[in-house]
Amino acid sequence: MSVPNRAEESSTAGAGDEARKGVTEPEAGVEPPMPAAGAQGRAEPPMPTAGAEAGPLAGTRVLDFSQNLAGPFAAQILGDLGADVVKVEPPGGDPAREWGPPFVGGQSTLFQVVNRNKRSVVLDLKDRRDRDRALRLAAEADVVIQALRHGAADRLGIGHERVKGDNPSVIYVSVTAYGDEGPLRDEPGYDPLMQARSGLMAVTGDPGGKPARVGTSIVDLGTGMWTAIAVMAALMERRRTGRGCHVTTSLLDTSLAWMSYHLTGYLATGILPEPMGSSIGMIAPYQAFPCTDGSVMIAAGNDDIFRRLCDALGLALAGHPDYADNASRVANSARLARTVAERTREHTVRDLLKLLSDHRVPAAPIQTVASALEDPQTAATGMIQPCDHPRAEGYVDVPMPVRWDGRRPALRRVPPDIGEHQGELFPDDETLWP
Length: 434
What we know:
Layout: E1 61-64, H1 70-80, E2 84-89, E3 103-104, E4 107-108, H2 109-112, E5 119-122, H3 128-139, E6 143-146, H4 152-155, H5 160-166, E7 171-176, H6 191-197, H7 218-241, E8 245-250, H8 251-258, H9 260-269, E9 286-291, E10 294-299, H10 303-313, H11 326-331, H12 333-344, H13 349-358, E11 363-365, H14 369-374, H15 376-381, E12 385-386, E13 396-397, H16 422-425
Parallel strand pairs: 1-2, 1-6, 2-5, 6-7, 7-8
Antiparallel strand pairs: 3-4, 9-10, 10-11, 12-13
Helix pairs in contact: 1-7, 6-8, 7-8
């Protein structure tokens, strides 16, 4: 999901904000007092120990104007790491709130999974009074994120130069669809459009089948990750130099980056990559194989694993010249896959997994979402966390997939209602960071 196709909207899937929308991101009560807005070389807050309850970015103020998925996901990552994130929404709220069903607590699950650890206020950036409020927040922020269409932030008065004028050391972030250059820079962008344009859909799906979208919003979420990485690097650089910078990411860049080995492979050989189902063109056998009651993914990533696979299945192939090394196995992958499949079909999924495990062959069952949730390993990871939620009974959070000293970042705030924290940030009609 990316950018709506309105005149002044966000430029990226999940990162797109509409021009009429407002400011975001800081968390309450974690930052020490900051110098006056616009002060050069502002003092940096002390860096907490990673894994501490406060989080490594405690004391960092993030103002997030973005909507949909990419920008909000970047801001959520920063919030998970302890930053005080204020999400600025337009009147009516982030459109992603309505991207459903399914809904949890009245909000789309797409919205819920990228908006925890944030506060929400509503500002109409086309209104002078609200725009002034947004600029006052931006003047005190360490990071400002926007994902508007090219030029929209400037037209709304929250562009880089305007914000930098009040806050010279700000890390200003533009999450875009296509970047700031090229013939498409003014166009809106959504995740599937980037998968289509980058060639990703052309290499996804079954051989001979129609192009397919990857089954999750990999471009949106990937752009959010790259954005958060870039912000953290910029914060470290600012700590060293005292200077802010303008960070730019784009959905197309992310999608092309995910295609890197396909792109370089084609440039090296001239052979056009095609969809290969569960397999990959560079390694064999490395795909799903049938069983009597399902399928198992087998990853024979090197010669030793292939020999162990042959031992497990009773195949005398390891010494055969057609399969002596990976390049030979790739050249003969179709015949090899048929031979392996003849043996795997004799087993149930459970029995084949046990057999392969005993021979130290990497393998996994192909599961549904339901069976993945029931998997004991999923439970052991702690990645499915039931949480108290004032508006959603049985709410479950899927946390940041990182641990410090065995601990995951804390869920400090469930995803907010629209404008839930208006009174905190604008008491008595004043703009403050409590």
